[in-house]
Amino acid sequence: SEGNPTMAVKECTKAGGCTTKEHKLVLDANWRWIHTTEGSKNCYTGNKWDSSICTDPDTCAQGCALEAVDAGQYESIYGITAVPGGVRLNFVTGANVGSRLFLLEDDETYKLFKLKNREFAVDVDSSTVECGMNGAMYFIEMAADGGKGRGYNAAGAKYGTGYCDAQCPHDVKFIGGKANSKDWKPHPKDFSNSMGLGHYGACCAEMDIWEANNMATAYTPHPCRIDTPGQYMCEGTECGDNDSGERYDGLCDKDGCDINPFRNGNATFYGKGASFDVDSARPMTVVTQFLTADGTDDGDLSEIRRFYVQDGRAISSPSIMTLPKTPDSITDEMC
Length: 335
What we know:
Layout: E1 6-13, E2 17-27, E3 34-36, E4 44-45, E5 48-49, H1 57-63, E6 64-66, H2 71-76, E7 80-83, E8 86-89, E9 92-93, E10 96-97, E11 101-106, E12 109-110, E13 118-124, E14 135-140, E15 174-175, E16 178-179, E17 185-186, E18 196-197, E19 201-203, E20 206-212, E21 217-222, E22 232-234, E23 270-271, E24 278-279, E25 284-292, E26 301-310, E27 313-316
């Protein structure tokens, strides 16, 4: 059975104060063992689907199942261990590389966040995330039930299905209740030989709260031109694939509109050591505010602001000196 790690989530209001609740975390379906529904034969091994089982996307999804991950496997296979209030994620654990976790509201539903007219804070420690690596915490517009009931998806949020993001990734193994097995090929940049690329991509809007290592950090909204909420199965030009030279022709803004102080020319704001305004060698609280034009929950999003907290001191994101009016937050004008 699933042995979910947990994370403490605190919700606060001026009037009511704060309440804390332990929420389960669940491993993304892409990292799980996929085997036949009858028996335990691998449907996917290394970076390939078994073509004798997965003759087409529907047959594959109908005949294959996602396996639960018990508490011991979360740690021993995926390198996910408990720390006070949350988890520590190892990058490489044995043959496994990385992990991706989602926050659950209950056993069958992801937790949804309403961000407008709110601020969101998260405690992070990226002291050992070195140059060239990216530790990420972000929101995506996937369905609360993980797409359960769509196509042959009988697993849902309980087993980490439904992932999508604004890069419209082709490595998602199941999209819309179908296996992404059509035209599947090994990922040319994956030297662990565990990833592949399918014909379809999985698109949805994305809000990157924390993309960072110990030398640089960025926060970035990535909107998409998609009318339907949740995971969208893209094909061809609408995926905006780099390899086809169509990055800027797709449904989603893959570049996004970010603030990265280092890239914007400020080399002393964030980094390892006491000489930086924000010392990435130590834990910090990262606070992101989502302001609306009329100060209500239903108003139009008008500004996204960022500050950091260390040693009880709030440290605002610096002005961007290379832009007109030197903005220090994300707005339509800044973008």
